[in-house]
Amino acid sequence: MNGQAAATLIKNGTLVTASDTFAADLLIAGGRIVRIAEPAASDPVGGDVKVIDASGCYVLPGGIDAHTHLDMPFGGTTSSDDFETGTRAAAFGGTTTIIDFAIQQKGGTLRQALDTWHAKAQGKAVIDYAFHMIMTDAPDASLREMADMVREGVTSFKLFMAYPNVLLLDDQSIFKCMLRAGEIGALICMHAETGLPIDILVERALARGHTAPIYHALTRPEAAEATGTERAIALAEMAKVPVYIVHLSAQRALERVMEARDRGLPAYAETCPQYLFLDEDALRGTATDPFEGAKYVCTPPLRPSHHHDHLWRGLRNYDLQVVSTDHCPFCMKDQKILGKDSFAKVPNGMPGIETRLHLMHDAVHRGQISLNRFVEITSTAPAKIFGLYPKKGSLNIGADGDVVVWDPKQALTLSHENLHMRVDYAAYPEKTVLGAPRFVFSRGELVIDATNGAGKSAVCLGRTGRGQYIRCGTFNL
User: Fold this and answer.
1) Contact 327, 69 (CB under 8 A)
2) Which phi and psi (to 5°) does residue 430 adopt?
3) Residue range 443-457, pLDDT digits in tens
4) Would you call 396 exposed, middle or buried from its count of C-beta atoms within 10 A (0-12, 13-18, 19+)?
5) Which class for 305: exposed (0-12), middle (13-18), buried (19 or more C-beta within 10 A)?
6) Using an 8 Å Cβ cutoff, are 354 and 420 in contact?
7) Could you give the 3-state DSSP secondary structure of residue 272?
């Protein structure tokens, strides 16, 4: 089966959106959804139509991963997935759009950063992509330049309260960026950890000979994230602008978001699968090799397991809006090993771009979220928040033909052997989940064919470089 037919009719499936579940047939032509009809009325007449039988399957809008770091320099190395391998792995997992982060160099311009990331993606991406902008410097020239970025379709700006001398901005600079974002309709995304005290805790731990990966978690306490989240929300409230908290991991940070939303403030937050399915004990490694815990060094760190219930409740109650991945993989060999003698030198990040939908759909089986909420937090909500809706994240007439035919009963073990991310380990190697893509369409083109099974049995038909840059609209929730 090839992906080049003029039109594709997906028959006998159950369409699932963020709000509805219903039986219908769906027709894609010209790269867009052109008809949704009752099965008896949906057969097109004539033309080159490829028919997909979706019996027993769900038909979903393609996943949108709003937080990835492909080909990103960090800690003396570069994340192991580039825009080719990373977007291909995303497609295997049912994600059809990613939003990656261009990074301003200290003293550099936003234009230089955007041009650099366009060059990284050009000719490589298998699926569509958009960009956020990480601002590491906020002189007046950069504040003026933010409007240029919005015109280029980069409408969200990420700021850091952590990583002094590299990424951290002081509160005055953060506030200026927020005020400017309000003027131009952009959204501020916050890495909300109080970074300066964390650095002191890291120095003290290393001075005492505490070098193992577990100390990455023990030196980044929940209080640092909760305080950072409260500060970010307070600054946004003063600036009278929305704020989006990235990769929220902890109960007390969530409570700060809940309190703000209860007061009617436009505060939004995402979490990631690692904070829902893994806990701090993973950082302890094994009895024979504590450094195995380096596989799970990410920031914020994995938390004790009691946080899981709070985060799931936040997803069910709409206090958390999005599940993204913060996909930033580094191999154990040659990369994570840089921190063998100091947890502070372990490159921060984990693989996740391929496994997000598998894990979150498995949570539907376990009753932790509804099927419609699964679609909302993995596709529709990020599309709306970041200005991609209704072109992306929906099954509406006229939307891009980004469609996943999802087999809810297909089992897959998330082992390294079954996955496609360019990293030398798996984060959930023993975990078997229910639910996997059978077909993945990007703008109407069949990019993944898994009729012979999930994992390495699936076939990628998407051509390297076919992915397009998508301009985001301004924030309008």
Assistant:
1) yes
2) -105, 0
3) 999 999 999 999 999
4) middle
5) exposed
6) yes
7) coil
Q: Which amino acid, 97?
A: T
Q: Dihedral, CA atoms, 250, 134, 131, 232, nearest 10 degrees? A: 40
Pairing mode, strands 403-413 and 128-134: unpaired
CA distances from 374 to 132, 152, 319, 383 (A): 24, 31, 15, 14
Q: pLDDT category, 43, cuts 50, 70, 90?
A: low
What is the C-alpha R_g of the chain?
21
Closest Cα to residue 445, out of 16, 2, 3, 1?
A: 3
> Widest CA span of the chain, in angstroms?
75
Amino acid in the structure at residue 348 = N
- State the pLDDT confidence band at 46, using cuts at 50, 70 and 90: low
Residue indicated by tokens 């080159």: 48
Q: Which of 327, 351, 369 is nearest to 414 (CA)?
A: 351
Report d(CA 133, CA 103) in Å as an integer.
6
Q: Which domains are assigned to the chain?
A: 7-60+396-460 (2.30.40.10), 62-385 (3.20.20.140)
Question: Which value, to the nearest 10 degrees, does the dihedral of the CA atoms of residues 53, 55, 60, 61 take?
Answer: 10
Which positions ≥6 away from 178 have C-beta within 8 Å?
Answer: 188, 235, 236, 239, 241, 243
Q: What is the pLDDT of residues 116-144, one digit of tens each?
A: 999 999 999 999 999 999 999 999 999 99
Q: What is the C-alpha to C-alpha distance for residues 268 and 181, in angstroms, rounded to an integer?
A: 16
Angle in degrees, CA 325, 276, 442, rounded to 5: 35
DSSP-assigned beta bridge partners for residue 54: none
- Neighbour-count burial of 126, counting CB atoms closer than 10 A to its CB (0-12 exposed, 13-18 middle, 19+ buried): buried
Q: Between the CA atoms of 101, 362, 437 and 30, what dihedral angle is there, to the nearest 10 degrees?
A: -60
Q: Say if residue 2's pLDDT is above 50.
A: no
- Tokens found for residue 258: 């809940």
- Supply the DSSP string of 123-176, one letter for each residue: TT-SSEEEEEEE-S---HHHHHHHHHHHHTT--EEEEESSSTTTTB--HHHHHH
Residue 71 amino acid letter: D
- Taking the C-alpha atoms of residue 50 and residue 28, their distance in angstroms, rounded to an integer, is 10
* Separation CA 119–CA 114 (nearest Å): 9
Determine how many CB atoms are found less than 10 A away from the CB of residue 131: 25
pTM over 0.85: yes
Residue found by looking up tokens 């052997």 in the block: 417
